[in-house]
Amino acid sequence: MKSIYIILIAVILLFLFNRKDDVDFKKKISEGAIVIDVRTPEEYSRGHIENSVNIPLDILEKSLDLLNDKEKTIITCCASGMRSEKAKKILKKLEYSQVYNGGGWSSLNKKINK
After folding, report:
1. Which CATH number does the domain housing residue 106 bear?
2. Are 105 and 40 in contact (CB under 8 A)?
3. Fewer CB within 10 Å, N side or C side of the chain?
4. 81-109: per-residue pLDDT in tens?
């Protein structure tokens, strides 16, 4: 019985922390959105979305000179969607108005290249 509760809690936590925005990412990119991949440079070097910008989550706030237009549409991504959700929250807190969590980079890549 205990294991059922543990599984239920794990599923709830996964749902809460692994959220992706339900938007047409392909359309957003065709309209000029930029994709910011918040993984480490090592992760990024193993594969990434073409034309994405690698700004690791731990230096995101220090690297905002690359994002001077707070109205620009930004799509964040990472390995699973957790860090990209954190990045989205950081950018929203700093008053970037058009920020979307694209989730994991490989699934986002499939969505924008279909």
Report:
1. 3.40.250.10
2. no
3. N
4. 999 999 999 999 999 999 999 999 999 99
Amino acid residing at 4: I
Strand order across the beta sheet in which 34-37 lies: 53-54, 34-37, 74-78, 99-104
* Residue 55 belongs to a domain: yes
Pick the closest to residue 95 from 59, 76, 77, 71 (CA basis). Answer: 71
Domain that holds residue 104: 20-112
pLDDT in tens, 59-87: 999 998 878 899 999 999 999 999 999 99
Whether 106 is in a domain gets the answer yes
The H or E element that residue 7 is part of is helix 2-17
